[in-house]
Amino acid sequence: MTDQKLTATPGQTVGPFYGYAMPWPGDNEIVPPAKAEAVQLHGYIYDGAGAPVPDAILEIWQPDGNGNVSRNSGSLRRDGFTFTGFGRNEVDPEGRYVFSTLNPGATEAGKAPFISVVIFARGLLNRLFTRIYLPEDTEALAADPLLSSLDATERDRLIATRGADGSLRFDIRLQGENETPFLRFPSHED
User: Fold this and answer.
1) What is the pTM of this model?
2) Residue 125: predicted pLDDT
3) Fewer CB in 10 Å around end: N or C, the chain?
């Protein structure tokens, strides 16, 4: 027996079947849009050539406005009251996604609040992970371990832009110039 490291069999692209297999009613409404604290999170997904990706699905996970991570079930059946911190949205033919959510709070004092994002799209062998940081707390952003590990231009690509209406804009670029920084977890093999 050798000490040779074996490489896992690569994943296979599935789809694009997302449009009928994964969405459910209200999947992008983590909170009802008419709720006083509701914030619209929106943006576009682009491929390496800068063209919109029309058949992707995004999932987001986040704490509530106080930084509490929800342990409530019921993400697939919205009741209009229970905050689960989870949502899913298929992009439209122009590559646009929209969520109705809350500004997440920091999970610890002094930490930068963020929303975790998972991207599923045609041509991806495995899903991609990234984060969306809120732009306001510059001190917490400067101290964030992930953001601090990136150069300035990469760091800026993980921070949403706040609109005059309070909305958050975050575009995702899968490859090429201005590619969104994606996370690699220890369980991900080369």
Assistant:
1) 0.85
2) 75
3) N
